[in-house]
Structure prediction request, 213 residues.
Amino acid sequence: MNKKLVGIIVVLLLVVAVGVVTLFIMNDHKEKDNANDSNNTQEEKEESSVPTNKKILIVYFSATNNTERVAKVISQNLNADFFEVEPVQEYTSADLNYGDDNSRVYKEYRDESLRNVELKTTTVPNWEEYDTVLIGYPIWWGIAAWPINNFVKNNDFTGKTVYPFCTSASSGLGESAKLLSQLTTTGSWQEGMRFSSSASEEEIKNWTNNINK
Prediction:
């Protein structure tokens, strides 16, 4: 076998060897990339399956359970915690007889000094963790039912986005949200929503869908 032929064979063998090594390296990189992609996908799945800390709070005062019902639907829609504002002296059915001049609620309406309703507590556990707060209340004589006032006055809404909502048989939201926001100089108060006493879950959900979670 002449030297020229041997040289050609050696060159061919080198070419084949280089090709094999290159193919091996490429396959190795591909396997590593696939493994990384698989790990990333798994990590994403694991991250998505980890429940996030709740950042939304529903605060409500309810006299006849209408606001409470709406508040609980909102809480479910937003996966939010909720906190009930409770007067020390609860309102009875007789207290809420708006047509009776001698009823508690009518006397409070006529005499603003009686609206300083003492609450069982205004302290929300882990209040500082919430960055969005929804505040619900019934409408009494065109304004927010005053038992909610002391909760608003006694809490610092700095850094929180606040969405008011109300329930009523016929009255609108009116200036109720504006008046509440004036009780505290903190928080970013957004446009509120009025629900009828018989609001459907779909109506409530349509509103909560517009609130950033």
